[in-house]
């Protein structure tokens, strides 16, 4: 059961300025108040229900799910939700070609695993301190981009996007690779750039946390 009052308290209904709106979102806007578009929470609940049913049904197929959001304020939230649902995540920076050039990215992941192994071992007589520190530096850099997908052996079956305007490169790659897209769309977004969408405030931590909690439960259940 989806609690609309909880949505209201979490600010899920608060859209962007009317000057920033995308006309394609008109069906999912309830009204305008003080220059801000108010999202129709009934539409949010209906769309979220469709997403949750889809995830719940397909979780039995052991699909690989990838959460993508590189907004700084959501990094910890995305990591926690992904780990809770046994999913993968990208929360720092989307590498161009991550999906369309997966073979190269997989090589980088393998390199990260090798560097982790080396850094966890004691320095052998064959590696100088300078070389060892250099390897650790490379490992730290790769971890920023790849730590959330370190155990991913193939491209994902489902990608969940938070922050459509910021993640357009990832979205285009998903479309090209015909990967199912689920996107939280604010009033300035395009609901036609995704397979499933949830109209909601995509800037607020409380709003995204509320939506992701419902999604996580659908995956876990």
From TrEMBL:
It is found in: Plastid, Chloroplast. InterPro entries: Ribosomal_uS2, Ribosomal_uS2_bac/mit/plastid, Ribosomal_uS2_flav_dom_sf. Keywords: Chloroplast, Plastid, Ribonucleoprotein, Ribosomal protein. GO terms for cellular component: chloroplast; mitochondrial small ribosomal subunit. CDD domains: RPS2. GO terms for molecular function: structural constituent of ribosome. GO terms for biological process: translation. It comes from the Eukaryota. HAMAP family: Ribosomal_uS2_B. Belongs to the universal ribosomal protein uS2 family. This is Small ribosomal subunit protein uS2c. It comes from Trachelomonas grandis.
């Amino acid at each position: 059961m989806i609690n609309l009052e909880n949505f209201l308290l979490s600010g899920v209904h608060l859209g962007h300025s009317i000057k920033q709106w995308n006309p394609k979102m008109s069906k999912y806007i309830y009204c305008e108040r003080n220059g801000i578009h108010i999202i129709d929470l009934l539409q949010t609940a209906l769309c979220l229900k469709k997403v949750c049913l889809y995830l719940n049904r397909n979780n039995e197929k052991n699909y690989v799910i990838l959460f993508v959001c590189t907004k700084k304020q959501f990094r910890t939230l995305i990591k926690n939700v992904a780990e809770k649902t046994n999913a993968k995540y990208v929360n720092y920076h989307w590498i161009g070609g991550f999906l369309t050039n997966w073979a190269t990215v997989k090589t980088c992941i393998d390199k990260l695993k090798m560097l982790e192994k080396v850094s966890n071992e004691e320095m052998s007589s064959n590696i100088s301190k300078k070389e060892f520190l250099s390897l650790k530096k490379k490992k730290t850099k790769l971890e920023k981009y790849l730590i959330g997908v370190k155990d991913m052996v193939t491209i994902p079956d489902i990608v969940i996007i938070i922050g459509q305007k910021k993640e357009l490169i990832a979205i285009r790659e998903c479309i090209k690779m015909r990967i199912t897209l689920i996107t939280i769309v604010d009033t300035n977004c395009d609901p036609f750039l995704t397979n499933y969408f949830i109209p909601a405030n995509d800037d607020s931590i409380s709003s995204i946390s509320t939506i992701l909690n419902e999604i996580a439960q659908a995956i876990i259940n």
